[in-house]
Each structure stands twice: as structure tokens, then as C-alpha cells.
């Protein structure tokens, strides 16, 4: 199996996060898709460190639980490595080159494109079509990641009874979900000529992604995320992090130190501001149509409110379940939609051609 492949119907996307596994199964329905199954399984602490799996067996057990909870008969799956582990470069190549010729050219120039020995990486490419400013040229995006990052995820999934058809990159999955859902839920923002600033805030990190014209224009990872806040509030482990998350979601913060909350929000804004500054230093379009929040951070009102006060742009929490109605038995997960954005993007990837 190469880094990427081609999935089969139904589309099953599994997001192996630092704190939980999220899965979404979809089937084609007319000119769109229908969600048929959704599941989430919590992961024990510290079995994924710096986006690398440190205990494959425990991840495999959680994946088995996810499979059991879904009740799915599908085994073909799309998963992802973290963008912090992947390298993407966009190249200009002659429009006359077909896939085989592009692959040969990449092989020839691999040492200059990929800062690892070719034997230690898996890579793939996609033509993005004719270059807008270079006549006779096409844009080609090349994505590579270390083989180890792919293999540990593949091993865990296979031990759980899945067959990995595609290994994607998380920010590409988020882009795909945004491109599918945003035109329906927020057409004015999506149709704006300015790019969108997507903030993926999970338990371990903040990922800043700028998307526009169907591609990831910028991405930056910073460790931290919500875990630092939970650790400051858990009274040395007396309160579980899921319980803290539920309290923060419900804005039940009277028992929490206002200074701790303010300090966290201040540090979070500093991280986000720094990412914006780095993007703007090389960008031609320095403003954004809006800010799109995904993952766990999108479910916390205090983060949404803080960004609304600090940012100059509209701020939305993207819940794909507002566009894709859930089957009745999964209705309780509807408010958790922002946590399933990547899993949905991976499921959508099952129906997109890529090279093997």
C-alpha cells in the first residue's frame, strides 16, 4: 500500500486523535451523501505522544470498541497522519506531463523535495490543474510523510479488523469537509474571495490552517491545546478531563479560578495571533473572510466568545451534523459535530481518486 490509495463504498473515515477515536460512515445519496453510522471511543492518556502512537495494542483495542459500537460491516477505511508529520510542496510542471511522467520527475527531484531518504518515506501527488499565472504549466502538490508514522496507524487499524485503503493528512481532510459543508451552511463566507482561517483546537495542540480555492494555503502546529487548561483545573486528577470538558461546555465555571481561565484564553490568543502573523508575512491576501473553529475547542463557548471579541472577522463553530442529519440513534452526538469534522473529511476521501 502506498501512502494513499482508493477507497470503496461505503466511505468510512476514522480520526485517531490524541484523546479519542472518532469515526463516520457515509453512503452516496443522490448528489450528496448520507451519514449512516457515527462512533467515538476514548483513548487512555499518553498513548499518543507528539502525534506518534506509543502503544499500538491499546489503540487497536479502542478501534475494536469503535467498530463494535458502530456495528459496521465495512472494513475499508480512510485514516490520516498529522500534518505536523507531513510535508507538502506545490510545484509547477508542464501541462504535457501525465501522471507517469510527473511521478518520474518527482523521483528524479526527490532529494530536493523531501528532506528524508526516499526509502524512509511514503509520498503521493495530485495535479491541481492549470497554473493561474504560468501559461502551459500545471500545479502539482506533493505530500510525503515518514513511513513509521503511516505504519503504526496501519498496524493498529489492521489489528482491529480494518483494511486501510487510504492514509490521508489531517489538514487535507479538514479542508475537504469544509469545502463540502461550508457552501450549504455558510455560503456568504465560503463564496468570499478571501481565504478562511480554520482553527483546529484539540486536547494537545492548536493547528492554524488557512484554506482557499480548494487548497491548504498555510498550516502551523503548536503544542498546548485544551489539556493544559484541564490539568490546571483538575485538582491533581480528582476531576476527570471529560467531566471538566462537560462543565466548560455548559458554562458551569463558578467553581473554577477566573485567573486560570483568563490565563488560558490569553495564551491561546497569543498562539493564534502568532500563527496569523507568520501567515501574513508571506501572504498576498492578508485578511480572512472568517474564522472557522473545529474540534473540541469549537464546543467551548468561552473560546468562541474570546475569538469574537479579539478577532476582526466573523467566528463560527463548524458542525457538519447541521448539514448531514444523523440517524435517530446517534442524535445525542449532534452537538459534538465539530469533533467529527476530520472524520467526515476522511470518509469523503473514500470517493476521491488518488494515486496508488
UniProtKB/TrEMBL annotation:
Residues 11-178 form the SHS2 domain. GO terms for biological process: cell division. Pfam families: PilM_2 (PF11104). SMART domains: FtsA. InterPro entries: ATPase_NBD (IPR043129), FtsA/MreB (IPR050696), PilM (IPR005883), SHS2_FtsA (IPR003494). Gene3D superfamilies: 3.30.1490.300, 3.30.420.40. This is SHS2 domain-containing protein. It comes from Pseudidiomarina insulisalsae.
